[in-house]
Amino acid sequence: MAPTHTGKDLSRYLVEKHPVREPPYQTKSICPLCKLEDEIVTVIDATVYEEDGRVMMKKTCDKHGEFVDVYWSDAEMFKRVMPYWYKTVGLDNPRTKTVEGCPKDCGQCPNHKSHTALAIIDVTNRCNLSCPICFANAGESGTVYEPTPEEVLDMMKNLRRNLPVPCPSIQFAGGEPTLSENLLQYVNWAKELGFNHIMIATNGIRMAKSADYIRELVEAGLNTIYLQFDGVTAEPYLAARDADLRPIKQKVLDNCKEAGLDGVILVPTIIKGVNDDQVGAMIQFALENRDIVRCVNFQPVSITGRIDHEKLGKMRITIPEVVHLIEEQTLGRIKATDWYTIPSMVLLGRALGLIKGSPELELSAHFACGMASFLFLKEDGSYYPITEVIDIDKILKVLGDICNLYAEGKRFAGVRAKLKLAGSLRHIKKKGLIKDLTSMFLKRGSYSSLRDFMHNIIMLGMMHFMDPYNIDLERVQYCDINYPTPDGRIIPFCTYNNIYRQQVEDRFGKALEEWRVEKKAAPPFNL
To answer: Can you tell me the distance from the alpha carbon of 328 to that of 415, in angstroms, rounded to the nearest whole number?
Structure first.
């Protein structure tokens, strides 16, 4: 049973923002070459500063010298979104102790500031592709990491023990998770454990072969496929995946419709000079498939795994660059100002939880980690962005006032909150389109009731995962996308993929030949 607010001191839910800082300011990072060449994590000072209209990061290692990289390519956008970084209530039950400091105590330690919004479980590191840009570096180590069903179940149970908010969403990943013979069971268990959003991150190869396979997963509890999608022409796939996978992607969408899947998220890894000229076309593709596609989640490339580090400067692209490219390629229909930083959504989850009397997820990532916008769909296939529908700043003010009614123990807080919500209708420019959203707040107060509403929109997301060259340990401490491990830890995404992945796979994996002997077969595994 989820924890409730009943009888609790709600003062922790008082709305606060992080102080706005003008670059330059100091943070902590790691030396990339200590990690990549010497396999040592060396924490070093880093300066975030402004230069030529960009936000940069500079750091110096005593052994390897100075490193300079682009942190955010638009300093003005950086300054615009920082004031939307709200403080969160965080995690009440960390799993590790603070001993050596970030990032050496991940698991999560008491210094971690966010609770888990999305958990990722790698059910196998086997894959049926050998993508040059795989941040998981799947298959290269010669070790098969494939947690036992018992370990996967324990990891899921551990996530659901998070307080004050049990982890609500889970994604099964890899490698290629559809190679796991136990995936159907894992989806079923996730549903039984109370995860309200269950995803599979996939290249789509197996799902393109069988609608029945997808149907079985849907019947077990699958909500969404997180589908690798790199463009609308052959070239990006040949560069990033060594094969033109477009027919597979289209067949997956067709099979999902036949199987009755609720939705698909398209996930393009954006690489400068490879597919950054197609971001507008990717959005158009989503609009043309709006009966099944719910979101396009752009991911500026992280320089990890198999990526040639000498090509870093040519490949590096940051969130603002992609946002501006979308504005250009949609001819200004989706403007840079239509995007808001992810933690601006903290107040939505907090207000929902206080209204319903049970803590809800607060999307509390660092402000520089991600951005989002929403497109409201018309019947003719055209759209307009959320800023043409809602006055975001005024709605955030209303949500903040509602949170503070409860946090300050005001009399009749529930009644007054609903009156404030009703009054917020004046900040809604196209009232008919969000009637369901208003009803969700006033009557049910549940994320699950957003489903019908989400069918009338397409979400645009943007997450830039860090690599050893640009990692900011302050961002790590606010990460809300985490990996559980078989030993009970829950590790932030960027430290897992940059520092801990190989350690975990070595400890809990098996040598390839040993694994093959046990399985008495040689499964798809590209080495």
So the answer is: 45
Phi, psi of 119 (to 5 degrees): -105, 140
Q: What percent of the chain has pLDDT over 90?
A: 75
In the DSSP assignment, the letter for residue 20 is: P
State the amino acid at position 328 in one-letter form: E
pLDDT in tens, 61-116: 999 999 999 999 999 999 999 999 999 999 999 999 999 999 999 999 999 999 99
Q: Which domains does the chain have, with CATH numbers?
A: 13-390+428-514 (3.20.20.70)
Nearest Cα to Cα of residue 263 among 451, 29, 38, 489: 451
> In angstroms, what is the C-alpha Rg of the chain?
22
Instruction: Give the dihedral sign, CA 336/387/19/366.
Output: negative
Measured in whole angstroms, the distance separating CA 323 from the mean position of its chain's CA atoms is 17
Q: Which of 260, 230, 259 is nearest to 246 (CA)?
A: 230
What's the rounded Cα separation, in Å, for the pair 416 and 414?
5
Are 252 and 204 a contacting pair, CB within 8 Å? yes
Q: How far apart are the first and last CA of the chain?
A: 45
Backbone torsion region of residue 39, taken as left when φ is above 0, otherwise alpha when ψ lies between -120 and 50, otherwise beta: left
Among 79-83, 176-180, 418-422, the minimum mean pLDDT is found in 418-422
Residue spans of alpha helices (H) in 292-331: 312-315, 319-329
Beta-carbon contacts of 27 under 8 Å, excluding residues fewer than 6 positions away, are 45, 46, 47, 48, 472, 473, 474
pTM of the complete model: 0.93
375-399: pLDDT as tens digits? 998 878 789 998 998 899 999 999 9
Residue with tokens 């996530």: 159
Report how far residue 467's alpha carbon sits from residue 495's, in angstroms, rounded to the nearest whole number: 9
Q: Is residue 10 classed exposed, middle or buried when 0-12, 13-18 and 19+ CB atoms within 10 A define those classes?
A: middle
Place of tokens 């430290």: 495
Tokens of 341: 């930083």
